[in-house]
Design brief:
The chain is an alpha/beta fold. Helices cover 29% and strands 15% of the residues. It has two domains: 163 residues, Toll/interleukin-1 receptor homology (TIR) domain (Rossmann fold, 3-Layer(aba) Sandwich); 269 residues, paralog of FGE (formylglycine-generating enzyme) (Alpha-Beta Complex), CATH 3.90.1580.10. Strand 10 and strand 11 form a beta hairpin. Helix 6 crosses helix 7. About 2% of the residues have low confidence.
Amino acid sequence: MASPLRAFIIYSSRDRELRDAFLKHIKPLIRAGKIRVWSDADIPPGEPWNDEIREKLCETELFIPLVSVHFFDSKYIEEVELPFAEEQRRLGHAFVVPVLLNHCSYRDDPIIGALEVIPKDRPIISRDWENADAAWTHVVEKISSRVDQIRDDPKFQSRREDAAAWRENPEAGTQHKVLQPDMVFIRGGTFLMGSEEGSDVEKPVHSVTVGDFYMGRYEVTVAEFKRFIDDTGYITDAEKNGGEGSSIFINGQWELKAGINWRCDAEGKLRPEREYHHPVVHVSWNDAVAYCDWLSRKTGRRYRLPTEAEWEYAAGNGSRHTKYSWGDGAPSGRKGGNVADETAKKRFSDWTIFPGYSDGYVFTAPVGSFAPNDFGLYDMSGNVSEWCNDWYIKGYYRNSPSVNPTGPSSGAHRVVRGGSWGSYPEGCQVASRGGFTPDYRAGIIGFRLVLVP
């Protein structure tokens, strides 16, 4: 029998009474040796509070956020505890099981909204339940069932060993895990590539068949790209020639600014570490390929950028070939993406946007902030545009092979797909295509991986 899961409760101090009720009802799981619960209330007097919290966060295997209106009003939860829990979940070191205390707009939160909360499809924990004990019993039974699933998983012990290595050496442990990036299997098929409604470069619509492949569930993040830099000492195109820089949007146009590189956000400001789960930007096609080559050497597997056909097939939900990755209609709530919207228009008043839609971000959003498409891929329409492997030629579709096309044999520009935080509706369509020189970099362009079976 596996040892107890180390559990940490994330809660607002204004929900302390409900936290205490939860602890009372979860005692049977503790006595049964299923979990070992820790919260900030257990810090001994006189001990450094922040150090203790961070140490316990690193040891946690099960995060239990007690979600409420107060929960979302806590800066410490927003900036420290919840992002750390999400990072540990994505690394495979921990699980996150949110408990809904009272009515709040949790579905709009980029982290909690992407998870299954307890209770599901029934009244939530609040004082309007006639029998509070019955409500808590239901929650604890669901948590107990989830803990049993986790501990019975044959891979659980290896996850623990991974997490132990990470705690011993966070850089090495994280790098070990990033060598197994989160990939989604895409079953190949036939689809109609292009669009008769778009620009001439999207025509003619033609039948294309792609084989099976794996694609990154998320765009490559700043944290992942940093591990590559730390391991290799690679100098990006933006850092060459004395720090030539990258392009940002200033005064209605894109301008190259010195000193801007992958460490910066879309505005060109140095990005704080708490935002390292955003997609990396200011990287060129050359930089993206160098990352793929490094990961391939490290793992013995063949990672590369997607072909243009693979990208469009995956973004458009296979043979359905939807207009956007989220579907054919306008974006709505989490079923949408980080695009030019009402939020952006407050900053850029002359932009063409998706009218009536607010995604909450002017620039990049953390990867996975919106609902995935049918394949389980996030941010295929919006957030950052993505480099593809192909050379870009406007009339290529007239002579494109029908099976696994890989683009022209040469050219001056490489394909960019997907639209970004600054893209108007036409630019976010899955058929939309563009190209830049291989050394071009800007605050709107990142990349994701493909793994060849």
